[in-house]
Design goal:
Blueprint lengths: L2 H5 L8 E5 L15 H6 L1 H7 L3 E4 L3 E2 L11 E5 L6 H13 L3 E6 L9 H9 L11 E2 L22 E3 L5 E3 L14 H15 L5 E4 L29 H15 L2 E4 L6 H6 L8 E2 L2 H4 L5 H15 L7 E3 L8 H4 L20 H17 L3 E5 L19 H5 L44 H5 L5 H14 L2 H4 L2 E3 L6 E6 L3 E6 L12 E5 L13 E6 L1
Parallel strand pairs: 1-2, 1-13, 2-5, 5-9, 9-10, 10-11, 12-13
Antiparallel strand pairs: 3-4, 6-8, 7-8, 14-15, 15-16, 16-18, 17-18
Helix pairs in contact: 6-7, 12-15
Length: 533
């Protein structure tokens, strides 16, 4: 990795950031759960891959009711993953390898095992402790009905009644009580937590559910409600993030927000120069494999970011989303949580070909790229047996939704080792599919045609091609089915989604192709290429 690029203050504007779901990355102590020891042991692999930063999903103390997004203590590492000293070593060792660290913050809620919530339950109605959350009396003759008509993000009623009769709000799982961000102690605590981790060397923070944090104090019903949404994208959020930005600026840190908003102007407000640095691009992530829709998603994304001077982010998959190889092999290649279902067929050969092309597409676009662990191995969605599913999405849907465990299955590292080299001496927390050894990293390292080889070469070239860091995108063709654009004067990316092979533009050299070109030099269907001009 080139030191001058890494040292730049704006490294994040064109960085490739690798998402680590610790529980499933690598098991260093053999107990069936991925941990920080496992991550540290794989730092050479990540350095060889060529990523600029690691984003860790929550590694904090947690009962794991929602995969760690139910945080009991932000200043402690969960024992299943290690301890604080080991996290500090990991941050330092990664930095020595030229890789920065980004951590998760989950500001909307905490675990029901958090000291604040346990104190609130013990203190009773009307207590100062309950003011840190959203406790309300119920409706109905005896308070037996929820306080309002909201629906949980995981489905069902987002209210749970406690023994003294009051109800508490949880937009997600029952074990994740929402915090009251109108309370100064809640704001102060999170500012202190940010400082705690910046002081330990993290380079950035990813904000979970960033647009859901603030609530209308009246908690009104949604039906018939007029005016701003009672808990989505409220204006008071911007004051919170401005205070956070001031803290990040003290340490040279950055923020990336998980912001799902259909309104481009409202979305861009979060990326003003005194707020968040970047935000995830869900428009591109959920877009079907269709040239017209992808071009519109790219144009809309760049247009959204342009007024505030923020870089776009590009991502194909994460710990919540059906893996790219599986999704692109289906008849419906888009993504929506409401459409997830069991038994949807997928052509994995077709999906792999498209995922390879999508990798080159995303890495050629202006901005930063997020790469979810296992995507560089071309892993498909795992079919997790029903009796092994752990995701609360599955249970809250009464078994209708498959949940997210299929994209969270432990990684295969070594072909001939137990559990494909994940490191466990016991059955891992989620089972590995029977064919996982054939997709293991050690096997792909020896195969120049593998997905891993493609990603390594693409990231190597991306680092060495200045146009991919500095030059804007310029479309070169309106031909249906073809995405053809330039970055600067000397680099072209072409992606063919049409039914027939496409003619390549004049070029001096083929730098990289996601698959073999036709013998006459035409670009086959579902193939991408980088060209030097």
């Amino acid at each position: 990795m080139e030191g001058s690029q890494l040292a730049a203050d704006d490294w994040w504007r064109s960085a490739v950031i690798y998402q680590v779901y610790v529980r499933s990355f690598a098991d260093g102590d053999g107990d069936g759960t991925g941990d920080l020891t496992g991550v540290r042991s794989r730092l050479p692999y990540l350095a060889e891959l060529g990523v600029d930063a690691l984003w860790f999903t929550p590694w904090y103390l947690s009962p794991m009711a929602d995969g760690g997004y139910d945080v009991a203590d932000y200043r402690a590492i969960d024992p299943a993953f290690g301890n604080l000293a080991e996290a500090e070593k990991l941050i330092a060792e990664a930095r020595e390898a030229g890789i920065r660290t980004i951590i998760d913050i989950v500001p909307n809620h905490v675990s029901d095992q958090h000291v604040w919530f346990k104190a609130a339950l013990a203190a009773g109605p009307g207590s100062p402790e309950r003011e840190l959350f959203h406790f309300r009396p119920g409706r109905g003759a005896h308070g037996e009905l929820p306080p309002n008509d909201w629906e949980s993000e995981f489905g069902g009623v987002p209210w749970t009644r406690v023994e003294d009769g009051e109800w508490y709000l949880h937009l997600f799982a029952t074990e994740q009580p929402d915090l009251n961000w109108a309370h100064p102690a809640v704001r102060q605590e999170h500012e202190d937590v940010l400082r705690f981790w910046f002081e330990r060397g993290v380079a950035g923070v990813r904000i979970d559910s960033a647009a859901l944090v603030a609530k209308d104090p009246a908690l009104p019903d949604l039906e018939g409600h007029q005016g701003p949404h009672p808990y989505v994208d409220r204006d008071e959020l911007h004051d919170i993030y401005r205070r956070w930005r001031a803290i990040a600026d003290e340490f040279g840190g950055i923020f990336v927000g998980e912001v799902w908003l259909p309104d481009a102007e409202r979305f861009a407000r979060y990326l003003r120069p005194d707020e968040l640095h970047t935000a995830f691009n869900f428009t591109f992530l959920s877009c079907p494999w269709d040239s017209g829709l992808l071009r519109r998603a790219i144009d809309d994304t760049l247009a959204e970011h342009a007024p505030v001077g923020a870089p776009a982010t590009w991502v194909l998959c994460n710990h919540d989303i059906t893996r790219t190889v599986t999704r692109y092999g289906r008849e419906d290649t888009g993504f929506a949580f409401t459409a997830k279902a069991f038994g949807v067929p997928s052509d994995l050969e077709l999906g792999t070909r498209r995922a390879r092309a999508a990798a080159l597409l995303s890495l050629a676009l202006p901005g930063s790229v997020y790469l979810y662990q296992g995507e560089e191995l071309g892993l498909p969605e795992a079919d997790v047996p029903l009796d092994r599913i752990q995701d609360p999405m599955y249970f809250r849907s009464q078994g209708r939704a498959p949940g997210r465990d299929g994209c969270r299955t432990p990684l295969p590292w070594a072909t001939g080792e137990p559990f494909a080299g994940f490191g466990s001496t016991v059955e891992p927390w989620l089972p590995l599919p029977a064919d996982w050894p054939s997709r293991a990293a050690d096997l792909q390292e020896r195969d120049p045609g593998s997905m891993l080889a493609l990603y390594r070469e693409a990231l190597r070239q991306r680092r060495s091609l200045p146009a991919l860091h500095t030059e804007p995108l310029r479309w070169l063709s309106e031909e249906p089915g073809l995405l053809l654009f330039a970055r600067g004067e000397h680099l072209i990316c072409a992606v063919n989604l049409a039914e027939h092979p496409a003619q390549l533009p004049a070029h001096a050299e083929v730098l990289l192709s996601s698959g073999p070109l036709d013998t006459d030099g035409l670009l086959p269907r579902d193939t991408a290429v980088w060209l030097a001009v």
